[in-house]
Description:
CATH architecture of the largest domain: Roll
Order of helices and strands: EEHEEEHEEEEEHEEEHEEEEH
Strand content: 35-45%
Amino acid sequence: MALMTQQISFMKMHGLGNDFVIVDSRGPGPLISEEMARRLGNRHLGVGFDQLAVISDSPQADVALTFFNADGSTAGACGNATRCVAQYEMQRLGRTTLSLITERGILQARQQGALVSVNMGHPMLNWDEVPLAREMDTLHLPLEGQPTATGMGNPHCTFFVENADAIDLAQLGPKFEHDPLFPERTNVQFAHVLGENCLRMRVWERGVGVTLASGSSSCATAVAAARLGLTGPKVEIQLDGGSIHIDWREDGVWMTGATMHVFDGQLTVQFLESVQ
């Protein structure tokens, strides 16, 4: 990497415990490789994160975002990281709205009091959009438990169970993440209905593992619950890290919740040279 002899600045942020390293690569900023992301994602030997978000310039939106998982693989969408970056940029610019472009396209964000909302776009409900390995009904997959598949810029597999807290995520998460039905692997959610338009959900994230929250997973679970008639299109989802609100509207799936900017830091030359 060309800039290994220079320190790289970063921000540590989280949305409901779903934590991120944010690197601003606008202008002559640093280039982040998959290997760099993997090393940074190690909680013992690097900084540690669920996802890494890289900010870059875009002629189409206020900012562009690229996402990496903790294992160094790329992610097409990351809702909570999008909200975190939107919060940071809106505060920096003194604005209450922002546009961000990801693999999902151009997403709109806005300040909602102390919370941040992002429109994550329309859910992808056809088998080839998720994507799945072959044509099938995405509402009832031919897997034990008949989960529902949803694309939100990344693939999701949602199980509705009697008690999500009784599920062994560490055992079942990787089993379904790597099921041949999902050629790009999948995020896995287990949820149950707590009350009217209220869900309890736990998450296994593709390329990461168990996480305290997941924005795109929350969107996918809300869409799946509405399609199955378990809830309406507007729900509260209680995650291990707190509550998030999802509203599936005609213009897309809006996600609203808290964000936190924890600290700023710099990667040392010693660490950067060790990645080469």
